[in-house]
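User: For a teaching handout, I'd like to show students what a predicted protein-ligand complex looks like in C-alpha cell form. I'll give you the sequence and the SMILES for nicotinamide-adenine-dinucleotide. Please answer with just the structure.
Assistant: Understood, here is the input followed by the structure.
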Amino acid sequence: MSPTTVALVTGGTSGLGLAVADRLISSGVLPVLLGRSEERGQEALKALGGPAVFVRGDVADEPEVTEALDVATRHGSLRIVVNCAGVPHAARVLGRSGPHSLERFVDVVTTNLVGTFNVVRLASERMAANAPVDQERGVIVNTASLAAFEGQVGQAAYAASKGGIVSMTLPLARELADSLIRVVTVAPGFFATPAVATVPAAARAALDHDLVHPKRWGDPGEFAGLIAHIIDNPMINGETIRIDGAVRMSSSPRRRSS
Ligand SMILES: NC(=O)c1ccc[n+]([C@@H]2O[C@H](COP(=O)([O-])OP(=O)(O)OC[C@H]3O[C@@H](n4cnc5c(N)ncnc54)[C@H](O)[C@@H]3O)[C@@H](O)[C@H]2O)c1
C-alpha cells in the first residue's frame, strides 16, 4: 500500500488555508495545519469534513516549523506545502502620529516573507528525500497578494512582504528543480475570509469600487480550487498566478460616489 500523502498547510486553521485543507481532504490527502492558536486549531479540526492534524506553531520559528514537519512526515509522505499564513497590515509611511513603526514593518515582513521562506527551506529538505512519483517529489504553493503588484497607500510593509514572495518564486523553482520540487505562488484579489471581516465595513465597501467581473468578493473554495489544479498540473512551475476577477487595485481605496 502506498503511504498517505500529507500536506503542510500553514495558516490552515482559517480562511483560505482552511478551504485548502478541506479541498485536500476531498482528494484523499491528509492536511497538517500549522497555526498559532490552539483554540482555532481545535475548531478547524471540528469544522473539517475528514481527518486532519493540527500543530501549534509560528511560521517564522525554526524549532516550531521543524516540529510540524516531524509530525507531517510521521503521518506519511510530505509531498505538498501550501503557505497561507499571513497577516494584513495598513499604515502610512508618514502618518498623523509620525513615521511608520519600524518594529511593525519588521513584524509584517517576518511573518509574511521570512515565515514563508522558513517553511520553504525546511520543508524542501524533507521533500527532497521523497521517492519521485510521476517525476516529482513535491510541490510548494505560496500566497502573495495583489499588493505585490499594485500596493495601495498604506500598504508599503504588506506590499514589501508579498512582493518578496513573488520575487523569490522563480529562483526557488529553478533551484529546487534539481530536487524535482515545484514552487508556485498565487496572488489572490479580494476573498471573504475572517481576516477581511475585521476590516471596517466602509473600507471594504471602498474596495468594491475596484471589482470588475465577477462583481463580488471571491469564495475561499475558489482559491482552493486553483491550489488543487496547481498541485495536479506538473507544467505549472516558477510562476505567480493572480486569482482576482480582473481587479487592478487603485492608488487608494475610493469611496463610492452614491
Ligand atoms: N482574504 C483575502 O482577500 C486575501 C487577499 C490577498 C492575500 N491574502 C493572503 O492570503 C493568506 C490567507 O489569508 P486569509 O484571508 O485566509 O486570512 P486569515 O486571517 O483567515 O488566515 C491567515 C492565517 O494565518 C495565521 N497566521 C498568521 N501569522 C502566523 C504565523 N506567524 N505563524 C503561523 N500562522 C500564522 C493566522 O492565525 C490565520 O489562521 C494570507 O497570507 C493573506 O495575506 C488574502
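For the handout, you might add this sentence: Residues 10-11, 13-17, 34-36, 58-60, 84-88, 111, 115, 143, 145, 188, 190-191, 193-196 surround nicotinamide-adenine-dinucleotide (CB under 6 Å).
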